[in-house]
């Protein structure tokens, strides 16, 4: 009974039939002519019949060769289709891209970048998971996850540092004018503070200036929430002072909706990193998204114009 033939040998046979010679087929396949001849001999032995009648000038198909030519050609077509898909995805990034992003970071800071990305790469189907859960990138089928703070623990994942978020205290000009500017961290006890909840526990502020590190006095009135975005909105509405990444506050400082409180003091920065399954053979869709993230979070400084040479 014939043994199962190697699909690669069927491809070789189809190329020989297409070109009419072992030499031309070997050139098309990038193989030595001796390898092509030997693989055809093996294939014939497996099938139990000759596929080609050899002559000095050209090879002719036997009846068996004619019968298996169409299935053999189909293998070539399928391989060519696979290569075409791979080449297209390298030239034009495409396919579904699943990304886990902290909701506050996406809503407050990344929205403009995400809009530009979807316009620039119309063949990428972007799926964003904004839930607060700590996803298992591999088991849950994500291409990339963005994480703030914490340490990388999964050795299966590659980590790419994106940016360190400086964190300061901010309030609306209306609140500052009404409640006054505190003179130091201890004076925050006289103010309304808007505090982030992490795992149900309020995050206390430790303020740093030069070599000093001082816990803020937060014994006054507090509003707590587990959403940066909500605290951000409350601060802009004049409800009190909140700690937030400078990146989030930057546009609202420019528009005058926020002012910096205790500008000489800041909280410890939070590291933002991307994690993904592997840097080797990274899909181009993931690579262009990672590049877009870096460009948004770490914009390159503008270069001064160079004087024209004489």
Automatic annotation (TrEMBL):
<keyword id="KW-0805">Transcription regulation</keyword>
<protein>
    <submittedName>
        <fullName>DNA-binding transcriptional LysR family regulator</fullName>
    </submittedName>
</protein>
<dbReference type="Pfam" id="PF00126">
    <property type="entry name" value="HTH_1"/>
</dbReference>
<dbReference type="InterPro" id="IPR036388">
    <property type="entry name" value="WH-like_DNA-bd_sf"/>
</dbReference>
<dbReference type="GO" id="GO:0003700">
    <property type="term" value="F:DNA-binding transcription factor activity"/>
</dbReference>
<dbReference type="InterPro" id="IPR005119">
    <property type="entry name" value="LysR_subst-bd"/>
</dbReference>
<dbReference type="Pfam" id="PF03466">
    <property type="entry name" value="LysR_substrate"/>
</dbReference>
<feature type="domain" description="HTH lysR-type">
    <location>
        <begin position="5"/>
        <end position="62"/>
    </location>
</feature>
<comment type="similarity">
    <text>Belongs to the LysR transcriptional regulatory family.</text>
</comment>
<dbReference type="InterPro" id="IPR036390">
    <property type="entry name" value="WH_DNA-bd_sf"/>
</dbReference>
<keyword id="KW-0238">DNA-binding</keyword>
<dbReference type="InterPro" id="IPR058163">
    <property type="entry name" value="LysR-type_TF_proteobact-type"/>
</dbReference>
<dbReference type="GO" id="GO:0003677">
    <property type="term" value="F:DNA binding"/>
</dbReference>
<keyword id="KW-0804">Transcription</keyword>
<dbReference type="InterPro" id="IPR000847">
    <property type="entry name" value="LysR_HTH_N"/>
</dbReference>
């Amino acid at each position: 009974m014939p043994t199962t033939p190697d699909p690669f040998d069927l491809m070789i046979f189809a190329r020989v039939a297409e070109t009419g010679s072992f030499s031309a087929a070997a050139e098309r396949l990038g193989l030595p002519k001796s390898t092509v001849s030997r693989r055809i001999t093996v294939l014939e032995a497996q099938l139990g019949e000759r596929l080609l009648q050899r002559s000095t000038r050209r090879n002719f198909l036997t009846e068996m060769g004619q019968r298996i030519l169409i299935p053999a050609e189909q293998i070539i077509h399928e391989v060519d289709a696979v290569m075409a898909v791979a080449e297209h995805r390298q030239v034009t990034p495409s396919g579904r891209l699943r990304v886990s992003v902290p909701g506050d970071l996406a809503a407050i800071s990344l929205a403009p970048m995400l809009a530009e990305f979807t316009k620039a790469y119309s063949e990428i189907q972007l799926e964003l998971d904004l839930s607060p859960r700590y996803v298992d990138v591999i088991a849950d089928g994500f291409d990339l996850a963005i994480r703030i703070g914490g340490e990388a623990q999964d050795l299966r994942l590659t980590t790419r540092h994106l940016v360190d978020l400086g964190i300061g205290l901010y309030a609306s000009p209306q609140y500052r004018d009404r409640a006054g500017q505190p003179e130091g961290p201890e004076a925050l006890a006289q103010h309304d503070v808007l505090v982030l909840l992490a795992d149900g526990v309020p995050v206390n502020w430790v303020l740093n200036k030069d070599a000093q590190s001082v816990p803020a006095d937060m014994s006054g009135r507090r509003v707590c929430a587990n959403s940066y975005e909500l605290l951000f909105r409350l601060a802009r509405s004049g409800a009190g002072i909140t700690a937030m990444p400078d990146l989030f506050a930057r546009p609202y400082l420019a528009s005058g909706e926020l002012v910096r409180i205790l500008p000489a003091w800041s909280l410890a920065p939070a590291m933002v990193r991307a994690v993904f399954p592997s840097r080797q053979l990274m899909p181009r869709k993931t690579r262009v998204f990672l590049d877009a993230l870096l460009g948004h979070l770490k914009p390159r400084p503008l270069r001064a114009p160079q004087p024209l040479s004489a």
